[in-house]
Write a structure and sequence with these properties.
The chain has 624 residues and is mostly beta strands. The chain has 5 domains: 9-222, no CATH class; 236-358, Sandwich (Immunoglobulin-like), CATH 2.60.40; 364-484, Immunoglobulin-like; 490-589, Immunoglobulin-like; 596-624. The chain has 4 helices and 40 strands. Strand 39 (566-574) and strand 40 form a beta hairpin.
Length: 624
């Protein structure tokens, strides 16, 4: 074989190996190369920086060897086709004018367009030994090129398939720095990765990644750049709680409020637009329109002001969108219940539609029949036991029957209710809710004036009222009550039946009165209550005890009846507040089971009946 033929074959093998990535293209190593120092402009030791800055020339910017070694980066790293950093915030990754740097093995995610290009710079771990620490950058879904180091004398190693670039640990003490250009070649929808490693084990082609991971980026390849295009799945367009004209809103709830706006309030819609990469969409025109005579004001602010509320004077408004925006909406017709449909658009495209409902002015106030009919003398929401709380149940509605949230006051008190007032939400013993637009019901507690005179006990009436928009009081129905002492004087106890069957539920009723013969007030506890029953009666449901309360002077307690026939005795005592002796009694369990003797007697009678019928039949046959 000729020398020429051998050289041709060697060349052929070398080309094949380079194509397959088996061999590497290596610049000639030269001793005493200049290495970068810790804190250099393109990253402290053990850092990967990628060029997330936008490039305007079509080719990502790369520093020269001299620039790469500068303490302050003179050339920002840039990219063509970079879309977004989709990573969550992390202390080991930050973006600045140079690029986005990452360290400590952190994994990051981003989006680039197909065919995009991005520059990078990686620095190795600092070495205190005789040689430098190796450094490798590896890419999938793309290729690496245009390598730059801190000096033209520093050797770099690029794999034959251009997917990994390294500086091996053959240099003097210091920090290796490697920069270059990555070109993505994956199709839209695929994933590319950029990873950097540093370590003393990076010594050759087969050990490029034999080091510690510096950082890794997973890049999703997008067909087009959707940055700045509204994605409703990532955006927030929601109705917030309504506000008064004198207040502000900074609410940014991700869900719509279900409450109807009270009369005279301002509807609020929060608008936070984002693209598919969760970046804020800003700059374009954000507009809103309202129907049925409502006015809108669109403001691009973090927090609204009272002045913004009063500035809603037209049915259409627009502003340049910011990261946080609000649409403020007025009531269509003052003091009248109704609704308006608000259509919100960005750059001419609808991004949200909200129907905001408003209640009208107060038309009716009703004290519900479930309110307490027996009130404790001297009870207050701030000084008495909490069991007396929330004894007034009411509804406030507009002319259309919509529930209104408002806090009433007590008026029109007569008889033993003279001087009584209604509790407010400012009192701390109870949580006193005002009328709820969703539950359609409000609750309050009566504060009774007390007193020991005869007129402070017995029958009385009261009303509650709410002022409408014109300041005119809208009053409720007149509600009749009895005012009684909080001290029990006498009591009775009884079961609903004298006899039960096995498995029945027996109901005991305990009734109590004050010294005047009036029922114990609703909410009055039963201190010293002791209920004793013999075996065969077991408590069913909540047990009656000293913490149980009367409702209009009565309390019911449930028991399950056992299977054993017989008589069950019981006793009830109130050992505190009354000198009355315990009430006792007996109930029976009537056994309805049939005994064996009764069964046998029935069988004998049946046999006798059959015998008689047979005898009669025989006589009939003989006669024939």
């Amino acid at each position: 074989m000729s020398t020429k033929t051998i050289k041709q074959r060697i060349a052929l093998v070398a080309v094949s190996a380079l194509t397959a990535g088996l061999f590497t293209v290596v610049s000639a190593p030269i001793a005493n190369a200049t290495l970068t120092v810790a804190g250099a402009g393109y990253g402290a030791p053990n850092t990967l920086v990628i060029g997330t800055n936008v490039n305007t020339t079509g080719t990502p910017a790369l520093p020269t060897s001299a620039q790469l070694n500068a303490l302050v980066a003179p050339v920002p790293l840039t990219s063509v086709g970079w879309v977004a950093n989709t990573s969550a915030a992390d202390a080991n990754s930050s973006a600045n004018s140079t690029g986005t740097s990452t360290t400590a093995g952190v994994a990051r995610t981003g989006v680039m367009q197909a065919g995009g290009k991005i520059s990078f710079a990686a620095t190795s771990i600092a070495s205190a030994g005789a040689t430098s620490v190796g450094l490798t950058v590896v890419v999938t879904g793309g290729t690496i090129g245009s390598l730059v180091t801190t000096s033209a004398t520093v050797p770099t190693s690029l794999s034959g398939d251009s997917k990994s670039a390294s500086i091996y640990n053959t240099q003097i003490v210091g920090v290796n720095t490697l920069a270059g250009l990555i070109t993505l070649n994956g199709a839209a929808g695929t994933l590319a990765t950029i990873a950097a490693y540093s370590g003393t084990g990076i010594v050759g082609d087969t050990s490029r990644t034999s080091g510690t991971l510096i950082a890794i980026w997973s890049i999703t390849i997008a067909a087009s750049d959707n940055t700045g295009t509204v994605n409703l799945g990532e955006s927030t367009v929601t109705q917030q709680p309504c506000i008064t004209y004198a207040t502000f809103s900074d609410a940014k709830n991700a869900f719509d409020t279900l409450s109807r706006c009270a009369n005279g309030r301002v509807g609020v819609v929060y608008v936070g637009l984002k693209d598919v990469y969760t970046s804020a969409v800003t700059g374009g025109q954000l507009s809103a329109t309202a129907t049925n005579g409502a006015f809108v004001n669109v403001v691009g602010v973090q927090t609204t002001t009272a002045g913004d509320n009063y500035a809603a004077t037209t049915a259409f408004d627009t502003t340049a969108a910011t990261s946080n925006n609000y649409v403020l909406v007025t009531q269509p017709v003052a003091n009248v219940g109704g609704s308006t449909t608000v259509t919100i658009m960005y750059a001419g495209t609808v991004v949200g539609t909200k129907t905001i409902n408003f209640a009208g002015d107060v038309a009716t106030v009703t004290i519900m029949p479930t309110s307490a009919t027996v009130i404790a003398n001297g009870v207050t929401s701030t000084t008495s036991a909490s069991s007396f709380g929330l004894t007034v149940v009411y509804q406030i509605k507009d002319a259309a029957g919509n529930a209104i949230s408002s806090t009433p006051t007590l008026t029109g008190a007569t008889g033993a209710m003279l001087g009584a007032t209604l509790s407010t939400s400012a009192e701390t013993t109870y949580t006193i809710p005002s009328s709820s637009a969703t539950a359609n019901t409000g609750y309050a507690t009566i504060n009774h004036a007390g007193g020991t005179a005869t007129t402070n006990f017995g029958a009385g009436t009261y009303q509650i009222q709410v002022l409408n928009g014109a300041g005119v009081a809208v009053k409720s129905n007149v509600y009749s009550v009895t005012v009684s002492s909080q001290t029990t004087y006498t009591f009775t106890a009884s079961f609903d039946k004298a006899s039960y069957s096995a498995g029945d539920f027996a109901t005991m009723t305990i009734s109590a009165k004050d010294i005047n013969g009036a029922p114990m007030p609703t909410g009055k506890t039963m201190p010293g209550l002791v209920i004793s029953v013999t075996a065969g009666l077991t408590v069913a449901g909540a047990e009656c005890n000293s913490a149980s309360t009367f409702t209009a002077g009565s309390k019911t307690c449930s028991f399950a009846v056992g299977n054993t026939a017989g008589s069950y005795s019981w006793a009830v005592a109130l050992t505190t507040g009354t000198l009355q002796a315990p009430v006792t009694g007996v109930v029976k369990q009537a056994d309805t089971a049939v005994s064996n003797a009764e069964v046998l007697k029935s069988i004998v009678a049946l046999i006798a009946s059959i015998n008689k019928q047979i005898a009669a039949l025989q006589k009939l046959i003989l006669k024939r």
